[in-house]
Amino acid sequence: TFSGKTALIAGLMQHLRQDGYRTGYLKPVSATPHVTGRRLADADAQFIKQTFDLAAPLSKIVPVELTASVVEEALRSKADLPTRVKTAFDELSADTDILIVEGGGDLAEGGLFGLSAPEIAELLDLPILVVSRYAARLTGDDILLARHILGDRLIGAVINAVPKRERDLFSNTVVPILEERSIPILGLLPRQRLLTAATVRELADGINGKILAGEEYTDALVENLAVGAMGVDHALTHFRRKPNKAVITGGDRSDIHLAALETSTRCLILTGDLYPSPQIIAQAEEQGVPIILSHQSTLETVETINQFFGRTRFHETQKLELFLQIFESNFDFTRLYQVLALG
């Protein structure tokens, strides 16, 4: 989960289109549909559809949405969900040269209905490219397990979010081991802080907060978090070291609010259900800095944000443009084309 599959698919689709291939997209199973307008939709599928102007409706791009009602009905009636996936695949394939199929959050997702990644690959006769998020010394374990499960269907792997300082060591030690075990490593994508940033709106939604000021600036990306629980002099030094940040502090700490507004701050998150002074709200409005009111304590707010910060979805234009640049420079398209026997 949050390994970067959707981002990688966007990179592949753009490159393939530039090379003249008609590309399409299928996400057989969505385990996390959300309400958009009046219907449920998968956010990743919706993003790919809009970004690449895909003509197919979302109902065909995502043939199985595992909502509570769908799961209950499928278990009761033993619905043939794999056939639904195969029908969508055949229809979408008819209009494309290459149809990219996005797997689940892990190899097991959907297995209860015969729709795990290995089962879908077998059903649709697909080669598999695995995306793994860098995890220090443990990176590679999940790829070796995937090789054991998928066998020859695994055509390669991409490792995402590799820290710059660890790239050479990893490339010279772990990558050769994976290559010796017949796992081509097609890309080592460097970690970029902007790609893990969250919008101000996502932070507000994540803590169920109330926006008191600057609502028109809630699309701004937050790259860092800072907690203002110290004296104002120390706070200023601390805040200056963290650009594009969200400052989390008590609603009654006007000194900290002012210090935050003197530095590169994307939003103020004020805790304890304590409203700031009218002067703080006015200054934040003037500077275009949103203020979010949290009903939780500072500690509870920080703990809540830490559960999802750095794991937000890849759906902002700034992120897309940066990732596409990174992907083009760090992915071995020549080797992929050879494996897939493309021209």
Automatic annotation (TrEMBL):
Domain DRTGG: 202-308
InterPro entries: DRTGG (IPR010766), P-loop_NTPase (IPR027417), Phos_Acetyltrans/Butyryltrans (IPR050500), Ser_kin/Pase_Hpr-like_N_sf (IPR028979)
PANTHER family found in the cross-reference section: PHOSPHATE ACETYLTRANSFERASE
Protein name, per record: DRTGG domain-containing protein
Organism of derivation: marine sediment metagenome
Lineage of source species: unclassified sequences, metagenomes, ecological metagenomes
